[in-house]
Design goal:
Number of domains: 2
Number of helices: 2
Structural class: alpha+beta
Shape: extended
Strand content: 5-15%
Largest sheet: 2 strands, antiparallel
Distance between the termini: 36 Å
Length: 74
């Protein structure tokens, strides 16, 4: 029974982390233009829309890598 408690706690923490991360990304998109960088692929034809934020993903990956390396290398 104790292992289920730990698993439940871990799932709740992951969910909370995802909600916070989603909120930060939504706010960052409004204030910084993140998500509409040059190089992001956006195709709109009729009722079809395709959006692939390749440059945004690369920038976020770089920033998060640097941040996590700074935090965990201490």
């Amino acid at each position: 029974m104790n292992s289920l408690y730990g698993l439940g706690k871990m799932i709740l923490m992951f969910g909370l982390f995802m909600v916070i991360t989603g909120g930060v990304l939504m706010l960052a998109g409004k204030f910084t233009g993140l998500g509409r960088l040059p190089g992001d692929i956006f195709i709109q034809r009729g009722n079809f829309t395709f959006y692939f934020p390749i440059v945004t993903m690369l920038v976020l990956s770089l920033v998060l890598t640097l941040l996590l390396n700074f935090i965990f290398r201490r």
